[in-house]
Amino acid sequence: MKAALVTGGARGIGLATAKGLLAEGWQVAILDRDSEALEAAGKEVAGLTLINADVSRPEDVERAVAEITAAFGRLDGLVNNAGVADFGPIRETTFERWRRVMETNLDGPFLMTQAFTDLLAADGGGAVVNITSISGLRASTLRVAYGTSKAALAQLTLQQAAELGEIGIRVNAVAPGPVATKLAMAVHSPEIIAAYHDALPLNRYGKEEEIAAAINFLLSEKASFITGQVLAADGGFEATGIGLP
Ligand code: NAD
């Protein structure tokens, strides 16, 4: 049975992705640094393997490889979904805030994919999906750290696809538009929420399951000739050329 690992899987888009994969017959592990949320997810959803780890810490990532090897002995799908958001203008973004964003959003997917490459390449290859954002597609006055981290993750996706294709690993990204998760609601002001509703062609926030469906498609055999793409699941944001609120 195919095995997948979803980082930041204890809630939000990650947990919806894990549920979707379980329903499609995968064996699934979720990795999260929030042990309470991880435990709650384990109680809510039967059959998940739980890994309490921080994707920005190399020693945690190495332990995750050992735990996945012990649990499944293989890995076919890796979803680099763990992320943090911190909105603020340049002069208010301290180096600590900048580093906090980069460590999870950029260092994490680099470390995870590097550490799991051998396992993904074994047994016929595998697929990686990195979760970027529409915040990485345009500049805005609030997203110096978050937007830069996601634009860099899109480029990392292309680098990984270019290099790992020959050993059978496809690497793509999904760039979600706004979804009302804990992460988004901590940084979306009422003005931002209203502006997204007005400006998006679909006039609404996305649902966690709608982002999960795009991720799970890219992991699946249906996407077997697709690599190096950033798929926007964004209610039409990218198509219209509107600015970020
Ligand atoms: P969320 O806050 O609901 O879930 C994120 C999870 O990641 C949490 O469980 C958190 O504990 C975990 N996490 C954070 N840092 C971690 C680390 N260093 N190691 C391990 N786990 C860590 O957020 P979400 O909205 O579901 O976000 C999922 C992804 O989607 C993120 O990468 C986010 O940037 C991206 N995204 C979200 C939106 C949105 O509007 N919600 C839009 C675009 C992109």
Automatic annotation (TrEMBL):
InterPro entries per the UniProt record, alphabetical: KR_dom, NAD(P)-bd_dom_sf, Sc_DH/Rdtase_CS, SDR, SDR_fam
PROSITE patterns: ADH_SHORT
Listed GO biological process terms: monocarboxylic acid metabolic process
Domain Ketoreductase positions: 2-196
NCBIfam families: PRK07231.1 (NF005559)
Family: Belongs to the short-chain dehydrogenases/reductases (SDR) family.
Descriptive protein name: 3-oxoacyl-ACP reductase
Protein source organism: Phaeobacter gallaeciensis
